[in-house]
């Protein structure tokens, strides 16, 4: 049974709820998933997991990373996550020029760490509504499928 760490940054709760849905979707698929706020997570914690997931919002004047997730972002390329599966998702707002940029920033960092992308990132406007849930569940399934493919190779 694969393990997963879902870590998140959330100021007003939208990304915490996305992380909740992702974690529950993984648990429903038999994954040993846990969810931990990003300030309590080091990039090296991902070394103990099969599936590594970051959920983040985008903030600031220039589509910046949330302050509380910058350390994790900077540490990521310093750990070797070859053979691990990763997924990124998060919440943003269409009114801003660069929708969900922090999600893409984390995708780039995970790629530098050598991890394998499970599927396309899920980007949600503000709070996850019922019709956003299938995309999150699909990404959870893609994580499990990518893990199984990796195990078989
Ligand atoms: C000052 C400020 C700047 C923001 N900048 C962006 C941005 O550049 N791109 C984007 O997609 N969303 C941006 N947002 C929207 C937030 O990412 C969005 O509200 C998100 O759902 C907050 O997530 P949370 O509830 O988990 O804190 C910004 C919001 C604020 C208040």
From TrEMBL:
Coiled coil: none
Secretion signal, residue range per the UniProt entry: none
Record-annotated Flavodoxin-like domain positions: 4-144
Necessary cofactors: FMN
Gene Ontology MF terms: FMN binding; oxidoreductase activity, acting on NAD(P)H
Pfam families (UniProt xref): Flavodoxin_1
Purpose of the protein: Low-potential electron donor to a number of redox enzymes.
NCBIfam families associated with the record: PRK07308.1
Official protein name in the record: Flavodoxin
Organism (species): Aerococcus agrisoli
Lineage: Bacteria, Bacillati, Bacillota, Bacilli, Lactobacillales
